[in-house]
Amino acid sequence: MILRALRSGGPAAVTDLSEQLGVSAATVRRDLLKLEEEGLLTRVHGGAVVEEGDQPFAEVAGVRVAEKDALAVAAADMIEDGQSVLLDIGTTAYRLARQLHGRRLTVITSNLVVFEELADDTAVELVLLGGVLRREYRSLVGFLTEDNLRQLHADWLFLGTSGVRPSGQIMDTTVIEVPVKRAMIAASDQVVLLADAGKFPGTGMTKVCGPEDLDAVVTNAPSDSATCSVFEQAGVKVVRV
């Protein structure tokens, strides 16, 4: 009810939410804390706000670049020449693509920035998935993308995310991207999540998959992260950089 109120009415104070929902201010504060821990809202002075949607590619391309590059280097080391690699949308997958130049690989992607990065590299066999163009997000989505993926197989998928819940659930902010991510998981032998510390818990209200769908996580999250422990207990290899 709190999330519904914030989405429909925008940022709200604790007192306003208390009156609107007919509960005490203490109850609202407790629930706001829990919702923030789960990455579903952001607490601000005296209240809270829900940040709708994800940010366009250009807005996040320059954020935490050093961290993303460290993840990309570790991910590239996992791949052997001659293998096929699926790269998800997003900026971290793009940073990984930059590490694959000159490698004898097949790279499959719906990420247009990855495509542009590797298009002139003759060592890489590059497969661009079809679909509907999301211009601001530099990606292709929809049933055409999903159909393409059902006809393909990859040794590796390097998956991005908007947020990772404490339970190990992998989330995304955009509903239209989720079926493509799930189709990528189904088409791949090994699924590796690339998630810097900022994605714990990050954002997102739509579940992509659970820890049982992952083989490895590459992250710079603290070694004592409770979420990383959840992954390890589920048999997921956690690669810390």
From TrEMBL:
InterPro entries: Carb_Metab_HTH_regulators, DeoR-like_C, DeoR_HTH, NagB/RpiA_transferase-like, WH-like_DNA-bd_sf, WH_DNA-bd_sf. Keywords: DNA-binding, Transcription, Transcription regulation. It comes from the Bacteria. The keyword Oxidoreductase does not apply. GO terms for molecular function: DNA binding. Residues 1-50 form the HTH deoR-type domain. SMART domains: DeoRC, HTH_DEOR. Pfam families: DeoRC (PF00455), HTH_DeoR (PF08220). Coiled coil: none annotated. This is DeoR/GlpR family DNA-binding transcription regulator. It comes from Streptomyces mordarskii.
